[in-house]
Design brief:
Blueprint: H1 3-14, E1 25-30, E2 33-48, E3 58-73, E4 78-88, E5 113-124, E6 127-135, H2 156-161, E7 165-175, E8 178-185, E9 198-207, E10 210-217, E11 229-242, E12 245-258, E13 286-298, E14 302-313, H3 319-322, E15 325-337, E16 340-349, E17 364-373
Antiparallel strand pairs: 1-2, 2-3, 2-17, 3-4, 4-5, 5-6, 6-7, 7-8, 8-9, 9-10, 10-11, 11-12, 12-13, 13-14, 14-15, 15-16, 16-17
């Protein structure tokens, strides 16, 4: 066996990892109460050339995800709670930093323990009321994830615009082909830093092999005082399934950018590599439109997923921001033995203008993930 093949053999046989939670176990506490438990353990190899200037672009890592749900049948309805918790290996602390790279230091500040979802809900007939942290009720996603970092291998509008989670009060009405989601949220994934709330909602129709919907989110800006940032969008989504083949997509009209003339060098929270956290006009958002198509073929022990999307930002006279973004994602997943999944993924983006200190970065990333789930 050559050294290269031996190295690849070690990678595949000593790591564990892939899509958030694939297996589920249900335990009966009593005739009316059940407990669900999902466990996933992952290891991965990542080569992200979009951050070639950081010293963190090529690395091995490990993580785990724990999902749990508790539900009790009250006869007239149901009460329950659900949680999804991530265990993350943090980045090394000896990161390459200087006056320019320091701007992105917060991007690599990863919590070892992360509450991804945690809520209590009540269900009666077609109505469900939940309070806590849940998946954002905006659009619908049908593409697979590979890591706890949900945005790493996601379409641009999902990794840069639409939040993965919202925290607040959620109401769902679901009956036959109609689904209505309405939520009043903090506007951020976690606890809010201002006193306003953000309405988010979706109205959709669908059946076993098709779905379509319209979504909207409106907020006066997340963050505190002169640090407020717009994060509003209006979108449509669809899905069509024929046998083992599934086609889906989303498109949004997006509003973003700093609400006030705030010095970008003073930003201390995680920043966008695509220069979206910039100021244009007082209390006036920057706009953009974008979307993607996702094609998935799923067999019994393997699947192929292909995704392509584009995002067109408003031209504000800044080439670093104004250039259209194109992103393609291709992944192959196999299950060589029961409960173990191996995924190889490639992400490709078009070349865009870069700041001089970022010279050498490229629009591509490669990921190898192995998961063992219970």
């Amino acid at each position: 066996m050559t050294k290269a093949r031996y190295f690849l053999f070690l990678v595949i046989t000593t790591m564990a990892g892939l899509t958030p939670l694939a297996a589920e176990h249900e335990f009966k506490i009593d005739p009316q109460t059940s407990l669900n438990l999902n466990l996933a353990f992952r290891g991965y190899f990542m080569d992200d050339q979009r951050i070639q200037w950081s010293g963190l672009e090529v690395t091995f890592g490990s993580e785990a995800a724990v999902g749990t749900g508790l539900e009790r049948d009250l006869g007239w309805g149901k009460v329950g709670a659900e949680g999804l918790f991530f265990l993350n290996q943090p980045w090394g602390k000896n990161v390459l930093r200087d006056a320019f790279r320091q701007r992105y230091a917060a991007n690599f500040d990863v919590d070892t323990f992360e509450i991804s979802e945690l809520n209590v809900h009540f269900q009666k007939g077609p109505f469900t009321l939940a309070m806590g942290k849940k998946e954002t009720p905006f659009g619908r996603m049908y593409f697979p994830h590979s890591l706890n970092n949900l945005g790493f291998d996601a379409p641009f509008i999902r990794s840069e615009a639409i939040l993965w989670r919202e925290t607040g009060l959620f109401v769902t009405f679901q009956k036959e082909f109609l689904t209505i989601d309405i939520a009043m949220t903090t506007g951020e994934e976690d606890k809010d830093t201002n006193s306003s709330v953000a309405p988010v909602g979706r109205i959709g129709v669908g059946g076993k092999n098709w779905a379509a919907g319209f979504s909207a989110k409106k907020h006066d800006g997340f963050g505190s005082e002169n640090q407020k940032t717009f994060k509003n969008h209006y979108g449509v989504d669809f899905m069509v399934r024929v046998g083992k083949l599934q086609l889906s997509g989303e498109a949004i009209h997006d509003e973003y950018g700093l609400k006030h003339d705030y010095n970008p060098d003073d930003i201390f929270w995680p920043r966008s590599l695509y220069h979206r956290d910039i100021f244009f006009k007082v209390e006036e958002p920057i706009t953009g439109v974008g979307g993607y198509l996702n094609l998935n073929y799923a067999a019994s022990h393997w699947s192929v997923n292909a995704n392509y999307g584009e995002y067109k930002p408003e031209k504000i006279g800044n080439p670093l921001h104004d250039t259209r973004i194109r992103r393609g994602i291709f992944s192959l997943t196999s299950e060589p033995i029961p409960d173990v999944r191996v995924t190889v993924l490639g992400l490709f983006e078009n070349d865009r203008p870069q700041e001089s200190w970022m010279e050498g970065s490229k629009g591509k990333a490669v990921l190898l993930v192995v998961q063992y789930s219970l």
